[in-house]
Amino acid sequence: MAIREIITAPDGRLRKVLSKPVERVDDALRSLMDDMLETMYDAPGIGLAAVQIGEPLRVIVMDLAGADEEPAPIYFVNPEILEPSDEVTLHEEGCLSVPEFYDEVERPTTCRIKYLDYEGNEQVLEAEGLMATCVQHEVDHLEGVLFIDHLSRLKRDRVLKKLKKEQRLAAAE
Ligand code: GNR
Ligand code: NI
Known about the structure:
This protein has a single domain (12-172), classed as Peptide Deformylase, CATH 3.90.45.10. It starts with 26 loop residues before the first helix and ends with a helix. The longest helix has 20 residues, at 153-172. It has a five-stranded antiparallel β-sheet. The chain is globular, with a radius of gyration of 16 Å. A hairpin with a 5-residue loop joins strand 6 and strand 7 (122-128). It has helices at 27-42, 129-142, 153-172, and strands at 47-49, 59-63, 73-82, 88-95, 98-108, 110-116, 122-128. It has 173 residues and is an alpha+beta fold. The chain binds ligand GNR and nickel (II) ion (NI).
């Protein structure tokens, strides 16, 4: 297992690339999912899409267990959001690819997720609360969408400008 570098906005690799469906859940893919989980725990975060470590494949890992609970990793291969509720909820979000910025995003309150698990078996999960928020945030990544895209243009431009400046300063060191 290895900790990989997380790409941050406004890097074009998070945006222009549409993540491709996985054709086969094999050991190479499981090895990528292991790296993603290790990278996510190290960050730390509660979810990670493969494109965030530069692998444009439709793969997500997630662990919503609290700090004092046993780890509970979930692996989603080729996830599809089904039956998003008409009801929406505001939830504060953050993103490892948009460091140190948090804001509320409105999304469907509940949904189902159809996906292949770590073994390649088809699963359907009912999601609500943080799980529903997080899985929709992650599936957005697979389409090149960041949570800041759900905010006003003013807020989005402001955070992107700040990140660009920070990266320029870091590169000049
Ligand atoms: O760690 C994360 N926390 C989080 C909080 C609220 C809604 C979504 C998330 S996902 C984020 C990790 C991340 O950037 N995943 O893509
Ligand atoms: Ni994110």
